[in-house]
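Lab notebook, bench 4. The sequencing result for the construct came back, and we need a structural model before the next group meeting so we can plan mutations. Quick request posted to the team channel:

Model the 3D structure of this chain.
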Amino acid sequence: MGSVFNRGTKHAPNWYCKYKDSDGKWKMAPSHQRTKEQASRWLSVVEARIADGKVGIEQPKPRVLVGEHIEKWAKSLTNRDAKRDQGRIRNHVLPAFATKTLEEITLPCVIAWIDAQRAAGGQKDQTLRHSLGLLSRFFAWCIESGLAEVNPVRNVPKGRRPKMSPKSDVAFLDDDDTVRRIIRELPAPLGLMFYLANRSGLRTGEVAGLRMSDLAWVGEGVIRVAHSYDGFLKEDRYGEGKVKWVPAPDDQDQVLGPHLRLRRISGAEPGDLVFPCPRRDGRCFRLEYICGSWERVRAALGLGSLTWYQATRHSCASRNLSLDASLDEVSSALGHASTETTRRHYDHFVRRRYSDRLRTGLSGGANVVVLRPAADAVKRPA
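Done. Here's the predicted structure in token form:
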């Protein structure tokens, strides 16, 4: 049985409780109560907890701020866009949540953050979508690590989530003469890389990462794509070694043939790059060099603000869809997860002409039925 005693004065009492804890040891603790009766009631609560096999007085858990967990999680990222994601975390996620605990980041807290960002105009909806996705991935990591049980981002109503900005028409190359001029102006072998990217819809990293063995199926009209630079494809999120197949241009033998023969004569193995960079000991061309070369050619040919991506992959998709290529074929060539992804980006090109069968009108020529107005719609003379 515990006891209550005063360690203060008569006019400024400081009531303490002495009790035998669940570990069998006698302990003393301040009750923080004003009277002896209140301290006795507080002691009875402590002894009831001990009787239930619990600790008499639970020590408060240290307040761990989310910032420590976010920084640890950000360092562990290994995905393709890890550096870009770490920049978004540093610029958008950490400033908003670093000084909070996991328990304080609730659904109302997340919604208030979204509304505050929209009101301040600090982030565009697309950037805010990325930031919200990163916050969701962070909570998924916390759940896996046993730090949290609920991901509040998943409970954000659809109507409160930032939406993707509508896609607008973007210029693309539809003039083959201009494409030929670009190929001649770009330094070797960037001209050939541009040719393949423009005709087959390859991303910059995909054309830079092509291996000699990837061209073994050009006779069947396809090219295998298995690398982006020296890493995995964008579609290969988990590094499983996925590949995709893109259409091979029907004149690739005339355009690429001389370059490939020189590569074979120089002793290129199946696993070697098709377009190695001579300044990097045979490794891939860097994106900065490709973009810098493109900027010089773009300015020389007066192509306005057209980017490398718009002149290659975007132009391939837009050109083929404008020529009535099927949505399914173009989606497959681009490596999109579904045709809905392709439609979302290129809906203005999808199906603008229809066959005569779908455009069949009423049969009978001039014998067209004329619909008369309803009887109650005809005005009767007064």
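The chain has a mean pLDDT of 87.
Will bring this to the meeting.
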